[in-house]
Structures are given as C-alpha cells and as structure tokens.
Design goal:
Helix content is 37%, strand content 19%. It has a four-stranded mixed sheet, with helices on one face. The radius of gyration is 19 Å and the shape is elongated.
C-alpha cells in the first residue's frame, strides 16, 4: 500500500506522479491519494479565489474524472472515492461563516456585472482575498486505486 496524503497538489505533473507510484505497487496493491478536489461546489463557485489556491505551493488540482482517466491509462482500478472536509466545525459558526463566504463572492460578481452594464460605476477596488476556510465544505477527496 502507498499513501500520498496532501502531496499531489504540490507536484508539477500529477499524472507522472501517480505513474511513478503505480510502478512501485505490487500486483493487487492499493494506492491512496488524498487532496483537495475541484469538484467541490464551493471551489467551483469561488474559482481561483478559493482558499486552497491561496497557498503558492499548491500548483496542481484534480477531479474525480481526472483520477478515473489517469487510472484507466495506468491500469489502476478506482475502488472508492470519498469526499470530506477537514475537522468538524462548530455548527453555530458554520452557517454564519458559509453565509459570509457566499456574500463575499456574490458581492464582487454582482459589482462586476453592474460595471459591465454601466461603466461609470467603475472604481478601483482593493485586491481580492481568497475566500472560504478549511473545514467548512467537503472540498477534499480520498481516491483509492488498486493495481490489477
């Protein structure tokens, strides 16, 4: 068994990374990869402003479809995929923080749309900050591969 927990997002070529791990697996061996996933709704909503993109060392982001495609090419079968959030946030804070997250994102998008319609509304804005926080959304996944 080989486990790569929060590693793949740091490599320049994730396909070659998975291939190098698959080469080291014995037949019937298991490869477990855990990382953030672009499949998360919160990540799709925020795009490049999502908190996980704010770390300069995170350079590769994958999806479940990517994992299936790479697994097929490398002769690896996906035996399971599980999405999760790190930790268990306080339930009272969770709703408030999620609302704040969406307000921060909808506000800039709405202002951008208004400026497109009425250019005279344009004014310089402060640089965008990354949005979202760890533990608020199921924005990570564990993918289990099995070598044939």
């Amino acid at each position: 068994m080989i486990c790569a927990v929060d590693v793949i997002e740091h490599v320049e070529d994730p396909r070659n990374f998975v291939a190098s791990l698959a080469e080291r697996l014995a037949p019937g061996g298991t490869l477990i990869i855990s990382t953030g996933t672009l499949d998360a709704h919160s990540w799709r909503f925020a795009g490049g402003l999502y908190w996980y993109c704010g770390y300069p060392e995170n350079i590769s982001f994958i999806t479940q479809a990517w994992a299936r495609a790479v697994g097929d090419r490398l002769g690896l079968e996906i035996t399971g995929v599980q999405r999760f959030a790190y930790g268990e946030p306080d339930a009272r804070r969770l709703g408030r923080t999620r609302r704040r997250f969406y307000r921060k994102l909808i506000g800039p998008k709405l202002r951008e749309q208004l400026r497109a319609w009425w250019p005279f509304l344009a004014k310089p804005e402060a640089p965008q900050r990354n949005h979202g926080y760890p533990s608020l959304f199921e924005d990570h996944m564990i993918v289990c591969f099995k070598k044939a």
